[in-house]
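Lab notebook page, bench 4
Experiment: in silico fold of construct C2
Operator: M.H.
Input chain length: 451 residues
Purpose: comparison with the prior construct
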Amino acid sequence: MHSSQVRSVEEGESDEKTGRRDPLPAGSGGSDRRRFLRLCGTTLLAGAAGCTDTGGDADDNGSSNDQDSDNETASQPAIEVSDATVSDTEIYLDETLEITGTIENESDVEGTFYAELRIDGTIIETKEVTVGAGETESVTFSGTFGEPGEYEVGVNDAHAGTVVVERRPPEFEIRDASIEKTTIAVGEEVEVRATVANVGGREGTFTAELQVDGLSVETQDVTIAAGDETTVPFGYAFENPGRYEVSVNGVAVAAVTVAPPAEFDVTATAIERTTVRIGENVEVRATIANVGGLEGTVTATLEAGGEPIATREVTIPSAETETVRFSVGFEERGAYALSVNGTEVDTLYVTECYVPVDERITVDSRSSNTYTFDLKKRVDVTIRAETRDGVAPTLTVAGPSGTLVDGTTDDSIDGTVTTETAGSHEIRFENDALLPWRSGTWDVRIEICTW
């Protein structure tokens, strides 16, 4: 019970008038003893069960008037506690206990009685009760206990009962619950966190339970001291797409949408041109579509002959596309098969150029001058010829598959031929002049760019 409610008499304190030291119940305090003496004289202390307001007072020299004494004895009321009860024999520390005492006056004189709440023999509180002649009154004490334990409770000499006081058992509540994100991919693990508080009076162990659509999918045991709280993390991956209600021990967290993960396809490719010289850059483009259910980031990788040479990272929402651009060049000649994320783009031919013919030639009427080269497929041959004698030349480039170019300009030829097949190729300059004396003179330059 609260210590502030204690009202008692110090053991062995002297009576101010008689000088006698009166016996007191064990454990009594001294703050209210003079009040008891003033109201009851020595009756309370001697009888240890109550007092009246009609008792006689001792004179100054310690003697009493015999007639007054006889009258006082004749009118002394007989008041006692006939019964005492408690509201409960098992309570928690924060619960209020009520102790009720029944006080009977069996005499024909009204009197005042001091009811004492006693716990383990110690007077905790005192109440003054006036009881009429032949009547019964009740008195009630109430309070809480400060420490757990087993206590003997009574009112004066009447035993009310044995009260067992305990701390409240552990009691848990979910104070907060959250989820890392509410839209996730199939198979992706998401974190759920719950803060659990012990609002009970004792340490205890709580089983935290992660629930999906009301079904338990994971549990964790946590021990929490009274008045403390702790955060419990869960990690869970959803194996199938759909919408799920997530909760912790019945406390709703969020609705989670589980979708197929981002999935990317290269839907189109393009290259600016397929023949470049050493060190010359060319643009390669790839269109990438996200055919999955969620936004995602993809790394587009440009490969040459299966080896990565450049990367681009791009984030694409679900059902949308993005075009990725690369600028690429090579320092060695060759044919490079380009692809983006395994999808073929084209073959890029990186060429190195040389000039096998750079001379002035004379071609007689109705004759030709021929140059022969063994060329690869996709080799560029640039031919320039400018007349110096007023006869327009005719150029023919013939390869294994037949004639590739047959062109004539007024006074000059300037063009590039790309071989479509590998093999022996002929470059012929012909003079179709009708008159035999009309020979032609040309400045000829042939440049071959080969890989």
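Observations: Residues 1-73 have pLDDT under 50 and may be disordered. The radius of gyration is 57 Å.
Next step: discuss at group meeting.
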